[in-house]
Amino acid sequence: MITVDDSIRILRDAFEIKRKKDLDFANTNVERYSSSLQKEEFPVMRKFYQNHIDKYQKMADSLSRLKPLLPAAYSDADPQKVLAQEVTCKFSIVSPFIKARQEITETFILTPDGSKCYRFKPGRGKR
Fold first, then answer.
1. Confidence at 124, pLDDT banded by 50, 70, 90
2. C-alpha to C-alpha distance for 108 and 121, rounded to whole angstroms
3. pLDDT of residue 111
4. DSSP line for 22-75
5. What strands lie across the sheet with 101-110, from one edge to the other?
6. Dmax of the chain from CA atoms?
7. In this structure, are residues 85 and 70 in contact, taking their beta carbons and an 8 Å threshold?
8. What pLDDT sits at residue 103?
9. Does residue 99 have a pLDDT over 50?
10. For position 125, what pLDDT does the model report?
11. Are 95 and 79 in contact (CB under 8 A)?
């Protein structure tokens, strides 16, 4: 079962992964341009590097203060409310062309009552 609490955790985890990636990108660029700035002798290029350092430092500062924004529907929702159910199916088939048995594992995300399929995630079964 996937609950509101699970969904919030998934959204926060995805947010943190993206934020960390973007923050690493900004910090790497600050370091790279700072290194180039220290080696540069021409004033025009020093200004160019300083502008890029300022730009990426501003981006890094903004990203470090950023908090995840959750859907408004989650603000008053019961954390244990079931939003969806995950069903893993394992089945085997015999191909008429190669006459070999194949096992397939698939995962489906269904509505809480199981009447509709939201999405299908390929499993790691043998194909």
1. low
2. 6
3. 93
4. HHHHHHHHHHHHHHHHHH---HHHHHHHHHHHHHHHHHHHHHHH------GGGS
5. 2-3, 82-94, 101-110, 117-122
6. 74
7. no
8. 87
9. yes
10. 46
11. no
pLDDT digits (tens, 9 = 90+) for 56-76: 999 999 999 999 999 999 988
Whole-model pTM: value is 0.73
d(CA 48, CA 51): 5
Residue 122's pLDDT is: 67
Q: Which long-range contacts (CB under 8 A, 24 or more apart) does 27-30 make?
A: 27/56, 27/60, 29/56, 30/56, 30/57, 30/60
In the chain the first and final C-alpha atoms are separated, in Å, by 27
Nearest alpha-carbon partner for 90 in 125, 127, 121: 125
